[in-house]
């Protein structure tokens, strides 16, 4: 099993822990009460098998978020040699596994902490192998339009 230490929490959700290779870190996993372990395992496995192009897209969107935020608050923007260098400024918080609309389609909804925006952090949503949202944590519905094209979603529209 990919997810370890499973238990039911006070909200009747399953929660556990999973190791994520991209961050070389264990993360807390919350599984919607209407979801199941098999689907959660699919999502974690999918996350651990992201292709390089998708990882770079996540990193580039994170850099856009980082530098626009820093510029907005009058701080100096960070220059990154490579897109993946931004990962040093990001730590995992939790992954939420939603009630699936399609059990064959992995949906990844990550809540992350980042050094540039400590109050709101960051959220990444990946659905069906596409980056759908990168921006401040807003609890975006991973099955909705993910605020594509909005100023606070740093995914390039032509990538969706």
Task: Please render the helix and strand layout as text.
Layout: E1 3-8, E2 14-20, E3 25-31, H1 37-48, H2 52-72, E4 90-97, E5 107-114, E6 122-127, E7 130-135
Parallel strand pairs: 3-4
Antiparallel strand pairs: 1-2, 2-3, 4-5, 5-6, 6-7
Q: What does this molecule look like?
A:
This protein is α+β, with helices and mostly antiparallel strands and 160 residues long. It has one domain. It is built from two helices and seven strands, in the order E-E-E-H-H-E-E-E-E. It has helices spanning 37-48, 52-72; strands spanning 3-8, 14-20, 25-31, 90-97, 107-114, 122-127, 130-135. The longest helix has 21 residues, at 52-72. The protein is globular and about 45 Å long. The chain starts with a strand and ends in a 25-residue tail after the last strand. Residues 6-139 form the DUF6985 domain. This is DUF6985 domain-containing protein. InterPro entries: DUF6985 (IPR054254). It comes from Psychrobacillus lasiicapitis.
């Amino acid at each position: 099993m990919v997810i370890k230490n499973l238990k039911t929490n006070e909200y009747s959700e399953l929660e556990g822990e999973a190791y994520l290779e991209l961050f070389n870190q264990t993360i807390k996993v919350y599984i919607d009460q209407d979801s199941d372990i098999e689907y959660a395992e699919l999502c974690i496995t999918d996350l651990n098998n992201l292709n390089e192009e998708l990882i770079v897209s996540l990193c580039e969107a994170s850099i856009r978020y980082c530098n626009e935020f820093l510029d907005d608050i009058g701080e100096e923007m960070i220059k990154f040699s490579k897109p993946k260098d931004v990962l040093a400024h990001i730590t995992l918080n939790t992954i939420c596994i939603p009630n699936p609309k399609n059990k064959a389609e992995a949906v990844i909804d990550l809540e992350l902490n980042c050094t540039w925006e400590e109050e709101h952090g960051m959220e990444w949503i990946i659905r069906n192998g596409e980056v759908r949202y990168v921006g401040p944590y807003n609890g975006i519905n991973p099955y909705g339009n993910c605020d594509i094209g909005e100023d606070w979603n740093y995914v390039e529209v032509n990538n969706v």
